[in-house]
Design a protein that fits this description.
single chain, 22% helix, alpha/beta, 4 helices, 6-stranded mixed beta sheet, two-stranded antiparallel ribbon
């Protein structure tokens, strides 16, 4: 999944998993409350330790196996239970932790257009990255492909309902940050949508 055509090979299974991607089940999930349509896609960014890539620590955080004594920056993560639906690493490899029909614990205290608790109706996708370093082409290509299949499967997710974590929790969160190229992402997602209709 390294180019825009990758969407042709990507699907969401009947049990709400991406295929083909790696699966590592996070315990940090539960049922979505009744009465909520899946209608929001939240883009996040994370690196553990901060500024380091490819360490495997994000997966350990999402599976409650992170050694919080292994790095000074981890002290604030002791006892924290979080997850996202999926992670895209710097090489474009995807790991899914929570099926999309279930609630991942990614947004925290949040609000979108007056509707609180975005975990109830949102899907969270993490990009491995920081505020300082641009995201990779492989990450953008795969994210766009995932966004497209999510929009097809959950039609309440529309382009204007694809947001950054900072937009739904502006007092707490910065991600995906200034390095995320929103105009390019939106243009390429639109192009892909048009290609699928021809």
């Amino acid at each position: 999944m390294a180019n825009i055509e990758a969407v042709n090979d990507l699907k969401i299974t009947e049990d709400h998993w991406l295929d083909p991607v790696n699966r590592t089940v996070s315990p940090n999930q539960d049922e979505r409350p009744m009465g909520y349509d899946i209608s929001l896609l939240v883009i996040h960014a994370i690196s553990l330790p901060p500024g380091e890539f490819g360490t495997g620590e994000i997966e350990r955080l999402f599976t409650n196996s992170l050694d919080c004594g292994a790095h000074p920056s981890y002290s604030s993560l002791d006892g924290v239970h979080v997850s996202s639906h999926a992670l895209i690493d710097r090489e474009g490899k995807v790991t899914q932790f929570v099926p999309f029909d279930r609630r991942a614990w990614h947004a925290g205290q949040s609000s979108f257009q007056g509707q609180k608790e975005c975990n109830n109706f949102g899907i969270g996708i993490e990009l491995e990255g920081t505020e300082e370093v641009p995201f990779t082409e492989k990450q953008y290509s795969v994210l766009i492909a995932i966004a497209r299949v999510l929009m097809d499967r959950y039609p309440c997710i529309q382009p204007h309902r694809i947001v950054g974590h900072n937009e739904i929790a502006p007092d707490r969160k910065w991600d995906p940050g200034p390095q995320f190229d929103w105009p390019m992402f939106e243009d390429r997602l639109r192009e892909l949508s048009l290609l699928q209709k021809t």
